[in-house]
């Protein structure tokens, strides 16, 4: 049998409808089916920690309910952009950027010295306290130890 070539279109599979030869005219329709692909979200580059369930999608899918990006203290996480119109399975890996924190020294409601910027990868021992203000009749001292939280190395 000589059938015409099937249409081609990214994201779809075409096939001739099944039919039975009979002693009459026959019309054979072409079926168009959107290809089904999977979308997986991962917390890590090694793709060992999947976040949420595997999601099925087609090129006709316009929205996905993304899982929450896992929290890593000291980092801001997000899912990078991805394209659902590609005719393939997708794996999306969470991206993280350092969160910037600020430390200020305040005496009687007034900031003393510069605002100090730091992140969880900084060496906290390198933070230099500003000179304490001079107040006649008082010894003004900053606390000996300034404890900064979230010194983690997740990556």
Question: Briefly, what is this?
Answer:
The chain is mainly β and 155 residues long. Helices cover 0% and strands 34% of the residues. The strands form 4 sheets. The protein has a 3-stranded mixed beta sheet, with no helix packed on it. A two-stranded antiparallel ribbon has the order 1-2. Strands 5-7 form a two-stranded antiparallel sheet.
Q: What does the secondary structure layout of this molecule look like, with pairings?
A:
Layout: E1 12-16, E2 30-34, E3 37-42, E4 50-57, E5 75-78, E6 90-93, E7 95-98, E8 101-107, E9 110-118
Parallel strand pairs: 3-6
Antiparallel strand pairs: 1-2, 3-4, 5-7, 8-9
Walk me through the structure:
This protein is mainly β and 155 residues long. Helices cover 0% and strands 34% of the residues. The strands form four sheets. It has a three-stranded mixed beta sheet with strand order 4-3-6, with no helix packed on it. A two-stranded antiparallel ribbon has the order 1-2. Strands 5-7 form a two-stranded antiparallel sheet. Strand 3 (37-42) and strand 4 (50-57) form a beta hairpin. The protein is rod-shaped and about 115 Å long. The model is unreliable at 150-155 (pLDDT under 50).
Question: What key phrases describe this protein's structure?
Answer:
mainly beta; rod-shaped; two-stranded antiparallel ribbon; 155 residues; three-stranded mixed sheet
Helix content: under 10%
Estimate the strand proportion.
25-35%
Morphology: rod-shaped
Give me the count of strands.
9
Whole-angstrom Rg? 30 Å
Structural class: mainly beta
Q: What is the element string, with H for helices and E for strands?
A: EEEEEEEEE
Number of helical regions:
0
> In terms of per-residue confidence, which ranges show pLDDT below 50 for 5 or more consecutive residues?
150-155
How far apart are the first and last residues' alpha carbons, in Å?
A: 60 Å
Q: Mean pLDDT, as a whole number?
A: 87
| Biggest sheet descriptor | 3 strands, mixed
Arrangement of strands in the largest sheet: 4-3-6
């Amino acid at each position: 049998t000589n059938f015409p070539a099937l249409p081609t279109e990214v994201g779809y599979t075409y096939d001739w409808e099944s039919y039975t030869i009979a002693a009459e005219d026959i019309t054979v329709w072409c079926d168009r089916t959107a290809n089904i692909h999977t979308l997986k979200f991962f917390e890590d580059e090694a793709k060992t920690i999947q976040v949420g369930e595997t999601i099925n999608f087609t090129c006709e899918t316009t929205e996905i309910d993304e899982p929450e990006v896992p929290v890593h203290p000291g980092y801001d996480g997000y899912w990078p952009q991805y394209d659902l119109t590609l005719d393939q399975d997708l794996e999306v890996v969470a991206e993280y950027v350092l969160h910037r924190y600020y430390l200020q020294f305040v005496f009687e409601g007034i900031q003393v010295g510069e605002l100090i910027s730091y992140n969880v990868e900084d060496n906290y021992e390198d933070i230099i306290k500003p000179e304490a203000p001079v107040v006649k009749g008082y010894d003004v001292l900053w606390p000996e130890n300034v404890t900064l939280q979230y010194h983690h190395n997740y990556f």
